[in-house]
Design brief:
66 residues, mainly beta, globular
Length: 66
Amino acid sequence: MADDRDRLFVIDRKRGPGGPVFYCDHELATKDKATGKMVPSMEIADESLESWLKRLKYGSAGLPKR
């Protein structure tokens, strides 16, 4: 899912169908010095899809807790 600024929220399905949810901001990507490739900035937004959706329901933007 993308937000209004084209930042992405993704679910790590390798850990099960319910999360965790990660947040990726393309503006915070960095360049790997060895390969020259861009590396996305990934932060955990919530430990599970269920708790992340609950936060959204109550008005959260879904961003990582800081």
